[in-house]
Amino acid sequence: MKLENNLGTDDIKKLVLKIALPAMFAQFVNVLYSVVDRIYVGNIHGVGELALAGVGICAPIAMLISAFAYLVGVGGAPLMSIKMGEQDNKGAKQILSNCFGMLLVISIVIMILMLVFKEPLLYLFGASENTYFYANQYFTIYLIGTVFALLAVGMNQFILCQGYAKIGMKSVVIGAVVNIVLDPILIFGFKMNVAGAALATVIGQLCSCLYVLQFLFSRDVHIKIEFGGYQWKVMKKILSVGTTPFLIIAFDNILLISINAVLQKYGGPSNGDMLVACATILQSFMLIITMPLSGITGGTQTILGFNYGARNTKRVLEAEKYIFLISMCFVGIMFLIAQTIPQFFVRIFTSNPEYIKLTTWAIRVYTIGLFGVAIQYTVVDGLTGMGVVKMAVSLSMFRKMLFLVCVFAIPMYFDVKNVFFAEAISDIVGATVTSIIYFTMFKNILRRRELEDPEGIEGISCK
């Protein structure tokens, strides 16, 4: 198959657009996996709000599991891009084969552990006596598809990093469409309720997984999956680079889990379930922002990694500029929507006036610092794509820890609903610190790369 994009020679502005926009669209469609589930669940007659709260408790745990796909996928894809930039196809194939094996093993282990400990986990992370039934029903079925979910997400990174942006987009769209079609059939047609939503998600993930693996095992792809060449030093390097996206996604969802737990604890029996349900709708809205944004900044990592590997630092700088501009434009549009008409989004999930009023206010508060998110994603994902792991982790963790401190500190002194201000505080402060460090150090990082040993990042070879 002819390469869709030449990462080293195509016009950089057009290249960023050709890769960023399909990746953004793919992630937007991917959001529908969870958002559509929640919309249908919220409209189940008689129990919609409680069922929505139960599914909302499961959602960040499920995303926490998916972080392991990024640990391996986003950990290996930048290294593979760099190897391709260095014209080292043998090294690129070895990275791909190691990542495939790692994802298989990790997904099976996680599924077993989660099934064993699911009950205490669900109660710890915000389930109540009223919502546990729905949370347990959804989560049990979802866990059965862990292997499909992790392989679909993780291995899709190796389609994107070879420049096949449209193929990568199709793999996500296929799964999302299957999920959307099956949701009303299983939830309402077969009267499976929450179980139907979970089953539709699993079947969608299976379809995505089969499409991704079929392509990566075929002769149509430049670097395909091969068996063998498994080495601990290669896996260690993959995990080292993948630590950044893993921690970012894992902590994002630990923070959401923390919010649910805090809202349930301080809200008490009277308001806890309502606050968790409202937080679930809020988190659905944020997914529509953060997932496409991660498509822009994560999908274009392959441009940065390839040209960083080829020591073409001028193209790296130029690409970063366009990635940032696209990110800010997207976030600007979503900021206007969040501040002006969030109530229309909320009404898709519930018709309860009390829920609508609280969630509309929460969305406006939560998104005050939204432009800071665009800065954070552009810088951290850019550094990750070039394998500059320590700085990326430090910048990301600073913002996450600030958020976590606010979540637990705010309800000790103020009404619990003010926990939603934690996101705005961490976004504004985190983006300020990130910007200062970026403008101080980024050009020096590129200069050091120009002088590095050809064997690879920081002199470490993955051969």
How is the topology of this model organized?
Blueprint: H1 12-42, H2 48-85, H3 89-124, H4 132-144, H5 146-160, H6 165-189, H7 194-216, H8 232-299, H9 301-309, H10 313-340, H11 342-346, H12 353-366, H13 370-385, H14 389-413, H15 421-451
Helix pairs in contact: 1-2, 1-6, 1-7, 1-8, 1-10, 2-3, 2-4, 2-5, 2-8, 2-9, 3-4, 3-5, 3-8, 4-7, 5-6, 5-7, 6-7, 8-10, 8-12, 8-13, 8-14, 9-10, 9-13, 10-13, 13-14, 13-15, 14-15
Distinctive features:
about 475 residues, 15 helices, about 0% strand, mainly alpha
Please provide a brief summary of the model:
This protein has one domain. 81% of the residues lie in helices and 0% in strands. It is built from 15 helices and no strands.
Gap between N and C termini: 26 Å
Helix content: over 70%
Biggest sheet record: none
Q: What characteristic shape results from the CA principal axes?
A: globular
> Which structural class do the helices and strands define?
mainly alpha
Radius of gyration: 21 Å
Task: Give a count of the beta strands, DSSP E runs of length 2 or more.
Answer: 0
Mean pLDDT: 90
Low-confidence region ranges:
455-463
Strand content: under 5%
Order of helices and strands: HHHHHHHHHHHHHHH
Q: Into how many domains do the coordinates divide?
A: 1
Count up the helices. 15
